[in-house]
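Technical note accompanying the year-one report. For the benefit of new consortium partners, we illustrate the data format agreed upon in the data management plan: each record pairs a sequence with a structure-token string. No post-processing was applied to the example shown here.
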Amino acid sequence: MKTLILMAFMLLSAVTFAQTEGYKVGDVVKDFSLKNVNNKTVSLADYKDAKGYIVVFTCNTCPVAKAYQDRVSALNATYAAKGYPILAINPNDAGAVPDESFEKMQALASEKKFNFPYLLDPDHVVTKQFGATRTPHVFVLNKTDKGNVVEYIGAIDNDPEEANSARTEYVKNAVNELAAGKKPAIASTKAVGCGIKWKKG
């Protein structure tokens, strides 16, 4: 059943339009301040020693996002110590999907023992700035003299079901290349997941 659900969402994502607005690779990201599940606000500037960031738009309910939760935690466990922490942002409107409420976010973060901020973007302001369209949708940033530059946009890997040991791990590869002083060989891929649930009106 899990496989069928994931396949259905992958097929849905295949017919959606490509990202046309928001940040592109090479753009400098504007800082933001969003509420974390611990009720404290978090911004990029809080991470004084960061070399970059892995910004993941994700949520509570999407089967694809849920399939990646442990991999997102693993990314943070590996790369936060190397200067590339995870910042997860929930872009979904709880009015459209009640299980995306802040309280449900807090419960999920506690249950899954998230080792990274899980931030609420209630009015989609940051989501629209980035141009995120899916959950999950990842933006890898590199801190430079110009600011935080987008170096990779897209999927975490090419294996939503975690069934292929030979998967291509796009985010890991991008961060490893940045840490080595190189540009990511693959700078963009198609994000696969559920469409963002936008606030109506």
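Partners are asked to follow this layout when depositing records. The chain has one domain: 2-195.
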